[in-house]
Amino acid sequence: MDADLMKALAQAGAISAMAISAIGSTFGAGASCSAAIGAWKKCYVQNKPVPFTQLVIFGGAPLTQTIYGMLLMLFINAKLSSDTAIQSWPLFIAIGLVSGTAIGLSAWKQGCAAAGCCDSFAETEKGFANDMVAIGIIETVAIFVLVFSGLLLASVK
After folding, report:
1. Rounded to an integer, what distance in angstroms lies between the CA atom of residue 147 and that of residue 153?
2. Of 93, 103, 94, which is closest to residue 70 (Cα–Cα)?
3. CA 105 to chain centre
4. Are 18 and 100 in contact (CB under 8 A)?
5. How many Cβ atoms are within 10 Å of 50's Cβ, its own excluded?
6. Which fold has domain 3-154?
7. Which residues of 8-26 are buried (b: 16+ CB within 10 A; e: fewer)?
8. Helices in 46-126 by DSSP H: which ranges?
9. pLDDT at 157
């Protein structure tokens, strides 16, 4: 197989990591922001003050996974400077697809949890720290995937 094709396939793995992570962030932010809108409406209907900042934090929580996907994309692409690393293109595709999927699923489920946080916090105005801990636990999955994928990439010479 020619070197240009192998590099292109490796780069397909790199962009997959970012793109799949971003798809998950889209689903997650869609869920959490929809819930934030509903929570704002509840507050307006009940003539309660709107916890704007907290609901925006919940709504935006899944966006960090797109950054993790972008970092993974850059890590993979950085490995493509040597001809021997290009020979590992199947590994780069696998890392991009599998890790991108794991990061994207983390974002999606984080958005689902954040949706519950929006509803709960708007109703009670209590438990923000607890809500952030729950969201952080789900975030940790994406961070682990990024770190472990980076460690695997470091083994490619």
Report:
1. 10
2. 103
3. 8
4. yes
5. 15
6. Four Helix Bundle (Hemerythrin (Met), subunit A) (1.20.120)
7. eebbbbbbbbbbbbbbbbb
8. 52-60, 64-78, 83-86, 89-124
9. 82
Residue type, 43: C
What is the residue whose two structure tokens read 């907290």? 54
Tokens 């993974």 found at: 72
Buried b (16+ CB within 10 A) or exposed e, 129-140: eebbeebeebbe
Task: Residue 153: name the closest of 104, 103, 106, 99 by CA.
Answer: 99
154, two tokens: 């470091």
What is the phi/psi pair of residue 156, to 5°? -80, 125
Phi/psi for 106 (5° steps) reads -60, -45
Tokens for 19, please give them. Answer: 């793109």
Domain ranges of the chain: 3-154
Chunk the chain into consecutive blocks of 10 residues (it has 157) and report each block's average pLDDT, rounded to whole numbers.
92 98 98 98 95 97 98 95 86 97 98 98 96 98 98 92
What tokens appear for 142 in the block?
């994406």
